[in-house]
Structure to design on (226 residues):
């Protein structure tokens, strides 16, 4: 688990294809790896990866085909910057929100414009993720915990303060940039809970309807009122 508070920027030092997947080596000079061990988790631009090798200020991690298919890691090049955060501990301050490092999809940056001292950035999420994104809710963009300002269908915007802008990949974003998105952890599991016993059925999809509400014991107020 992570907090979504980026610790530092790393640099992609090597990319090595291995039997259909990929091994990344990241130079993390701003990250304290003194207590890191093989098997530890580090979020790389929002993707939880397992450390497979440590060499001074560098670490390596394998990226599976699944992760390559649903994230932007395979689009990176040598020298590209990546957001880094080590896994939280029981002594870690939870300054952002609970982040799993399991990316739900890839979004596209639509626009950036100044908003006082911060920058307002608009993204389009995959349609399948739109139902999880709510105004004033939390979303993770390339590993950074952010608050959603407004939502319009699958389009949403966030404000990036100067501190976050300078410490993360946001400074290299351009219109059309693709980013890793992770929706709020609670929203993801709430969807399954709403299904109830239907969760075991193939193809079952959630949906709030008068019939469903009645089945759950909610009173019907759709009739005429005095």
């Amino acid at each position: 688990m992570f907090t979504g508070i980026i610790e530092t920027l790393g640099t992609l030092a090597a990319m090595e294809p291995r039997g259909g997947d990929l091994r990344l080596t990241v130079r993390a000079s701003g990250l304290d790896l003194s207590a890191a061990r093989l098997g530890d988790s580090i979020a790389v631009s929002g993707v939880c990866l397992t450390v497979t090798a440590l060499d001074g200020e560098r670490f390596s991690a394998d990226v599976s085909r699944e992760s390559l298919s649903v994230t932007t890691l395979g689009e990176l090049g040598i020298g590209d910057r990546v957001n880094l955060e080590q896994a939280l501990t029981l002594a870690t301050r939870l300054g952002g929100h609970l982040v799993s490092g399991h990316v739900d999809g890839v979004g596209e940056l639509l626009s950036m414009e100044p908003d006082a001292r911060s920058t307002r950035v608009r993204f389009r999420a995959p349609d399948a993720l739109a139902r999880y994104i709510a105004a004033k809710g939390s979303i993770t963009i390339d590993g950074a915990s952010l608050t959603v300002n407004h939502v319009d269908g699958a389009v949403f915007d966030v404000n990036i303060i100067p501190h976050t802008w300078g410490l993360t990949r946001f400074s290299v974003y351009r219109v059309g940039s693709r980013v890793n998105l992770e929706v709020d952890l609670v929203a993801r599991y709430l969807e399954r809970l709403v299904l109830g016993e239907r969760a075991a059925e193939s193809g079952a999809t959630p949906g709030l309807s008068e019939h469903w509400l009645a089945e759950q014991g909610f009173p019907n107020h759709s009739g005429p009122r005095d």
About this structure: Residues 8-86 form a domain with the Elongation Factor Tu (Ef-tu); domain 3 fold (CATH 2.40.30.20). The chain has a mean pLDDT of 89. The longest strand covers residues 8-18.
